[in-house]
Design brief:
With 134 residues, this protein is α+β, with helices and mostly antiparallel strands. The chain is 22% helix and 37% strand.
Length: 134
């Protein structure tokens, strides 16, 4: 290619022009919860209740949920689908660890969902990455 702007043929170097900056379309919180009780991390029904309540606390509209327990002593994976996007969890009871993904757009407030989940799961430590999407 001739290297004209707007045509990509490989890695781009230097500034790339595009549409004018805009407000983020949503916030995506990625949270690592360490030190959560193993019994809670293996309880699919309890985790589903907590994620649904967290979504409501954030002002989100719940569309549905699907949770799966991997068997005795194993963890849970689950997602709560929202009009505003989703909240998901994957747990490892054997490591007292859960990975949470809270993505919301519009007027929903993902930080309130995170606060609710932090209170409900009582982790010993939390690490959060806050990403503006869009």
């Amino acid at each position: 290619m001739s290297g004209q702007q707007g045509q990509a043929s490989g890695p781009v170097s230097g500034p790339v022009s595009g549409p004018a900056p805009h407000a983020a379309r949503g916030r995506h919180l990625l949270a690592d919860f360490h030190g959560v009780a193993a019994a809670l991390l293996g309880d699919a029904a309890a985790l589903e209740r907590e994620l649904v309540e967290a979504a409501r606390a954030a002002g989100a509209r719940v569309l549905g949920a699907h949770f799966h327990h991997f068997g005795a002593g194993a963890g849970v994976t689950g997602v709560v689908m929202l009009s505003e996007s989703h909240i998901s969890i994957h747990s490892w009871p054997e490591h007292l660890y859960a990975a949470l993904d809270i993505f919301m757009c519009g007027a929903a407030r993902p930080e309130l969902a995170l606060r609710r989940l932090r209170a409900a799961l009582a982790p010993a430590s939390v690490r959060v990455h806050d990403v503006a999407r869009g």
